[in-house]
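Weekly modeling sync, notes
Attendees: S.R. (lead), two postdocs, one rotation student

Agenda item 3: backlog of single-chain predictions. S.R. asked that every request posted to the team notebook include the full sequence so nobody has to chase files. The rotation student volunteered to paste the first one in as an example of the format we agreed on. Action items at the bottom.

Example entry:
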Amino acid sequence: MYSIYPPYTKVAIKLCKKYGCNLSAVIADLPEYMYSWKKSRGLKGVYASYLSRQMLRLQGACDSYVLFTEKMAARMGVAHKPYIVSEGFSDLSIYDDVPPQKKCEKKTLIYAGNLSRLYGIRSLVDGFMRVQGDCELHLYGAGSDAEYIQQCAQVDNRIKYMGRVSREQVLIALKKAHLIVINKPTADDYSNYSFSSKILEGMVSGTPVLTTRVGGMPQEYCDYFYFIEDETSKGLAHAMEETLWLPEDELVQKGESARQFAAQEKNYQSMTRKILDFLETSIPVDGDNARRQGSEQ
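Predicted structure, as returned to the notebook:
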């Protein structure tokens, strides 16, 4: 079962108890952070608040879990139950229709995604404006800070606001850039319990990634990234400048090693096999199921 959507979860729990089945939930985001519109006014907000409360009450009622980060288990109170951490998967086929690309003429950093404070966009742009040298920052996407980016672009013409474009254009841009930047603030509690799909998408592009050390990132990834240690605009400027001007062959090697890791260890086939192996060991055999069903009846 994907997520803990109450109308489905209540029925699933009853049916699994009745028929002696194992109920395993895939949790990509903490239930407490779901339904951001619960703060809305009127009937919409009331209903969202109700769903949120129900989701929290039901989050520990499943038999096993597939979690996106290790820290989720303790936060949800399910660490005593069978669970596995699977932070998503990489899919190299997304680049099948993207021909080989030459790198941009100027050293280029790229960010593609939600353009809002939640993802550290203002501090990223402010930090880049401190970077010295003939380089550019390309930003793709939409969000509440799009206007701020455009204002900064008028002050510093190295900042290029690309807006919303097709997925193919984004994939091409990721391959042409010299460095992908993911500046998710670590002070944001949500970041410590999530794993961004943009990380794996960036890795399979072959372009090196510069990112913050979010708490939800497994340790095994750390050898394949450059890291932002100081998230102030000054610290971001230092991290971008120091990384962007590394020797070209070093950047290429870093990006290629990350691509190979994602391709070999995090592809959808190996991750699915990992989940299936977990389910086969965590689900009781038929005899145990029958005994559990009989005892509940």
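Discussion: group reviewed the output briefly. Strands lie at 24-27, 64-67, 83-85, 107-112, 135-140, 159-163, 179-182, 209-212, 226-228.
Action items: rotation student to repeat for the remaining queue; S.R. to check formatting next week.
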